[in-house]
Every structure is written in C-alpha cells, then in structure tokens.
C-alpha cells in the first residue's frame, strides 16, 4: 500500500509542476532533484550528474538524431505527395478511396519516417486539401489524417520504440521488427473504419469520378521506388543482421539526403531547416530521457516499481487482467500527456510488473507504443490534433477532434488483438533468433 501512496504523491507532484506551464522534462528533473534531497541524501545528487552524463553520451542514443534527420529530410521532399498520388490512382473508385489512400500513404511514409507529428503534417498538408476539394466531409478528412499519422510511431523505424528500448534496455532491432505486423493490421483497421463510415453515409465521401488507365497506375509506381529503397536499406539491414539499428539509421539518413538532393529539394535554406529541426527534436528527446531517468532514480531507490510489482503480482487475478488495467491507466494518462512523456513516466514504473508476470518486454513495448498512438489523437492534449490544426488553414481544433474520435475505436481494437494474441508482434522477432 505504501507504494501506491508514493506513486500517487509522484503523480500529484508532476501534475502540480505541469500546471505551472513548465515542460514535462523539466518537471521530472525537478522531482528527481527534490526527491533525492528529501528521500535519499544530498550526497546522492552527484549520482544525478552521472546519470545525465551517461545518458547524453550513450552510444545507443546516436540512433535518435540519425532517424530524426532521415524524417526531416523526407518531410522536405515530395515523397509524401507522390505516395498519396500513387495510392489514389490504385484505389480508384472504391468507396472512401481518397481516405484510404491517405492512411496507406501514412503507412508507407511511416516506414521511412519514425515520427507521428511529422507523418501527420507531411501527409496532411497534401491529403486534406485534396479530399476537401473532392467533396469529402472536412471532419472525416481531418480525423482520418490525424489517425493515419499515428502509424509513424508504430511502423518502424520509430522514435518511440527507441525511447522504450533505452529505458528498458530492450533490443531496438527486435522492437522495430515486432512493430511491422501490428502496424499493418492497424492500418487495415483504419481503412476498414473509413470504408464502413462511407458505406453508411456516402455523402461523407463522394466517389472520385475521373477515370484512370492502367498505364497511369504503372507509371505512378516509380514514385514508390525511393520509399522502397529506403525501407529496404533500413529495415532490411536490421532484419538480415548486416547492421545494427544505429548503423541502419546512418544508412537511412544518408540515403534520405541523397533522395532529397536528387529530387532537387536540398537547397541551402532547406538543409539549414532540416538540420535545425533535427537538433531541436534530438535535444527535446535527450531532455525527456534525462528528466525521466532522474525521476526513475528516485522511484527505484524508494522502491515504488518493485513494490507495485509485488502488490500486482500477488493479486488473485489472471495476468491479462493486470495488463488490461495497466493499459487503461495509460489510455487515461494519454488524454493529458504527450506520447513521449507517457513513456518516460510510466514505463519504468510498470515494466518490472510486466516482467514479473512473465510477459515479453518486446510485446509490452508494442502495447505501450499503440497506447501512445491513441494518446496522439485523444483530446484534450492529442498532439496530432494540434499539428493538423497548425498545418491546415482555417481549421478549428474542435473539427479535428470530432473527426478523430471515431478512429480511436480501430486503434483500441488493434490494442486488444495484441493483448490476447501476442504472437502478432512476436513471431517476426522470433525468426531473427
């Protein structure tokens, strides 16, 4: 019971700091410092310095700026719009074709991106105006684009999976491979949701009337080649064992810059913006990791994760009930925290419980990633919702939110499938061993 009290005090303190307007990383860092002074010893403050130094100089984290650089480079290229055009041509007159094209384009872009907001912004800037121009209900167009953007942190490479791997010391390569099938399933569920909505109310998405020849479809496949090349270069190297995730990140960043350069979009001002965004995102990531590690240091010394693991595993109930309870808590927190904050705050607390129950850390990593996907489109702090509001002119946050709410359902279905059928995520990593 003492562990629950400490955990409650930690959450209250965190919310109190966040209410002042400071960032999550700074709030967790302050809690770590104060917790060390109050519960451990002023002499232990030197250990926080060691934690900051070790994390910021960790070779594992080199992969972060590499994948971020790859994402930012691709966002500056026409790859997103080319993918959308190709999907649009191939889906033709299927009900909700443009909506499904947006989701499939997001899935394809996610395979070379790794960031949910970057995916939502890149695809949304092209797809939403096109759907609205063709008579789509604007709330539906905005909602499905926000939901499609969430695939950016599930279909590998994924910055969220890198963070989970760093926190839990789980193989990042195994996490990447494990995210492929769940990502494709959830993309399919999102497309199915669009199709059902349009079949029930055809006025939401009028059919595209222009005819397309097979020659146009085949020629459009040329635009997919850069994505395939980059996807094979990154994931193929990891899956085959030729390269580590860090090495594949370096290859991916180099290939992405070459693709953008060949496309003619790598002017000096573009390169400057790409590098600036990479530095900003990487710095934010490192601050989150260090702040989270400060809090984790105190929580572990007090014994909160261990105590909660003992309490939860001693309960007379099936393990899956505890897992469902953990996921419900993550979903609730997702309404108020951004995806990365959820990872650094909650994973260190619940990870020992999950391992004590005998569950696979890779499987739990995919579960947490799907939870962060849902958090990205859950009001009031759904990150993708605000991204689209800023990217699309004359759009209100209420429109984006109303459109996105229905797409929480297919994401939740994907989460339940993974809870009760772990092999969905684990069979590909098991083939690597």
From TrEMBL:
Residues 11-424 form the TRAP C4-dicarboxylate transport system permease DctM subunit domain. Pfam families: DctM. It is a multi-pass membrane protein. Keywords: Cell inner membrane, Cell membrane, Membrane, Transmembrane, Transmembrane helix. NCBIfam families: dctM (TIGR00786). The keyword Cell inner membrane applies. This is C4-dicarboxylate ABC transporter permease. InterPro entries: DctM (IPR010656), TRAP_DctM (IPR004681). It comes from Brevibacillus panacihumi W25. Its main location: membrane. It is found in: Cell inner membrane. One of its GO terms (molecular function) is transmembrane transporter activity. It comes from the Bacteria. The keyword Manganese does not apply. The chain crosses the membrane at residues 6-39, 60-80, 100-128, 140-167, 173-196, 224-242, 248-268, 280-299, 319-337, 342-359, 404-428. One of its GO terms (cellular component) is plasma membrane.
């Amino acid at each position: 019971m003492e562990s629950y009290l400490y955990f409650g005090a930690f959450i209250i303190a965190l919310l109190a700091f966040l209410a002042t307007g400071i960032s999550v990383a700074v709030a967790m860092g302050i809690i770590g410092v104060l917790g060390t002074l109050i519960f451990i010893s002023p002499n232990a403050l030197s250990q926080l310095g060691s934690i900051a130094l070790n994390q910021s100089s960790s070779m594992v984290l080199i992969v972060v700026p590499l994948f971020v650089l790859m994402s930012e480079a691709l966002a500056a290229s026409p790859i997103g719009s080319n993918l959308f055009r190709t999907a649009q041509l191939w889906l033709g007159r299927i009900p909700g074709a443009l909506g499904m094209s947006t989701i499939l384009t997001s899935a394809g872009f996610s395979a070379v991106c790794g960031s949910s907001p970057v995916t939502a912004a890149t695809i949304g800037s092209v797809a939403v105006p096109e759907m609205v121009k063709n008579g789509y209900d604007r709330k539906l167009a905005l909602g499905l684009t926000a939901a499609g953007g969430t695939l950016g942190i599930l279909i590998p490479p994924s910055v969220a999976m890198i963070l989970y791997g760093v926190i839990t010391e789980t193989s990042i390569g195994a996490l990447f491979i494990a995210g492929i099938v769940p990502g494709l399933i959830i993309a399919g569920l999102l497309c199915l949701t669009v199709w059902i909505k349009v079949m029930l109310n055809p006025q939401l998405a009028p059919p595209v009337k222009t005819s397309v020849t097979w020659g146009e479809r085949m020629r459009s496949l040329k635009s997919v080649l850069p994505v395939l090349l980059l996807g094979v270069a990154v994931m193929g190297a990891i899956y085959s064992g030729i390269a580590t995730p860090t090495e594949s990140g370096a290859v991916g960043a180099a290939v992405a810059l070459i693709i953008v350069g060949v496309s003619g979009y790598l002017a000096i001002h573009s390169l400057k913006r790409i590098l600036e965004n990479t530095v900003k995102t990487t710095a934010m990531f490192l601050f989150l990791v260090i702040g989270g590690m400060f809090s984790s240091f105190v929580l572990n010394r007090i014994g909160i994760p261990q105590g909660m693991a003992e309490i939860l595993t001693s309960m007379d109930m099936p393990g899956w009930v505890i897992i469902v309870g953990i996921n419900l808590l993550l979903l609730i927190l997702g309404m108020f925290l951004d995806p990365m904050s959820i990872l650094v705050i909650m994973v260190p607390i619940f990870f020992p419980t999950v391992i004590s129950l005998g569950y696979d850390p890779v499987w739990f990593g995919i579960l947490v990633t799907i939870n962060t996907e849902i958090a990205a489109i859950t009001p009031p702090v759904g990150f993708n919702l605000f991204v689209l509001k800023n990217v699309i002119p004359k759009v209100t946050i209420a429109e984006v939110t109303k459109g996105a709410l229905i797409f929480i359902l297919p994401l939740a279905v994907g989460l339940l499938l993974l809870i009760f059928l772990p092999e969905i995520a684990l069979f590909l990593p098991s083939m690597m061993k």
